[in-house]
Amino acid sequence: MPDRAAAGAALRSLGIEVEWRQAPVAVDVKAIRERLGLTQASFAARFGLELDSVRNWEQGRYSPDPIARTLLKVIEQSPEAVDKAVAA
């Protein structure tokens, strides 16, 4: 990612205001998946995720990156919205 200050200045010069936000710090992937009543494979398929990524996140081998954490938070709060976006 480019320097935020430089990116913000460039966008402002185009008349675009930006507000930088932080991705969620932590997401419990297994809890989200289980709340939806899905297997790892069905969770991955439903939301367009790699099955190996889901497994690795749940087993603590890797942590989701900021973009994945944001997507997982949206899945947690509004899975139907992600279904709609993935199907489009």
UniProtKB/TrEMBL annotation:
InterPro entries in the cross-refs: Cro/C1-type_HTH (IPR001387), HTH-type_reg/antitoxin (IPR052359), Lambda_DNA-bd_dom_sf (IPR010982)
Source organism, top-level taxon: Bacteria
Keyword DNA-binding: yes
Gene3D superfamilies hit by this protein: lambda repressor-like DNA-binding domains
SMART domains for this protein: HTH_XRE
Coiled coil: none
GO MF annotations, alphabetized: DNA binding
Descriptive protein name: Transcriptional regulator
Keywords, comma-separated and alphabetical: DNA-binding, Transcription, Transcription regulation
Residue stretches making up the HTH cro/C1-type domain: 29-82
Annotated organism of origin: Niveispirillum cyanobacteriorum
Any one Pfam family match given in the protein's UniProt record, by short name: HTH_3
